[in-house]
Amino acid sequence: MLSQPITSIKIKHSYKKMNKNSNGSSKHISSSKYVAEQRAKVRDIVLCLQRKNIKLIAIDFDNTLLSIHTSGYYKGTAENLLEHIRSTFLYFIQEILDSPAFCQTLHLCIVSFSSQEQLIRKLLELAFKTSKTDRIIIRCNTPEFISNINEKDFLGKEYHLSSVVTEIATKRNKTIKPNEILLLDDDIRNILIAEKFGHKVLEIRDHISLDILKDFANNVLSQS
Questions:
Q1: Distance between CA 12 and CA 85 in Å, rounded?
Q2: Is 134 contained in some domain?
Q3: How far apart are CA 115 and CA 214, in angstroms?
Q4: Which of residues 24 and 60 earns the better pLDDT score?
Q5: Exposed end of the chain (fewer CB within 10 Å): N or C?
Q6: What CATH number is associated with residue 99?
Q7: Does any domain span residue 164?
Q8: How far apart are CA 145 and CA 135, in angstroms?
Q9: Which string of DSSP letters, residue by residue, matches 72-107?
Q10: What integer pLDDT is reported at residue 72 of this predicted model?
Q11: Is residue 116 within 8 Å of residue 70, measured between CB atoms?
């Protein structure tokens, strides 16, 4: 179970790389070398996103940050969910939190139809042992949030994103344009709606990896 920050944990979901010597035997590359390679990769991703003028990264919760779907009514503890956080997002979020740009020119939010905001907050605190997690904005379908939206019109994550942008403008005095938002979500409906509102998007599949994120940032994502 992942209970330490990315700087010290052994990534449970990581694959051990192997080299073969002239005798055909195999050697495991040390986990520390693998982690260093992943950190370098994710650092390039975050820098590339900034160069392309992405200012808000919005990550869905179920089947995106997590490899499972909680259905919005998870009865277990946050500790039980640690092992379900995708390693790709462990590296990615940690790099964002460590970036000097975090909360200045680069912001992070979790947007979810789940109503369990406190569960998500606790999970982030456990996964990333830093006080900076309290600066990750969370927008969930809590009763308070739902009371302020028109549920008759399904607009994907647009109400969530609009609320986050408003909070950033009000509390951080930063303005974010629609094309400066990147939504990472597994639901194609949310992806298509976000595109209509002018946001950048990436549909998350089970095989998501840092290599896929890097290719997207470098070769697919257009300059805002």
A1: 10
A2: yes
A3: 31
A4: 60
A5: N
A6: 3.40.50.1000
A7: yes
A8: 19
A9: T---S-HHHHGGGB-HHHHHHHHHHHHSTTBTTTBE
A10: 86
A11: yes
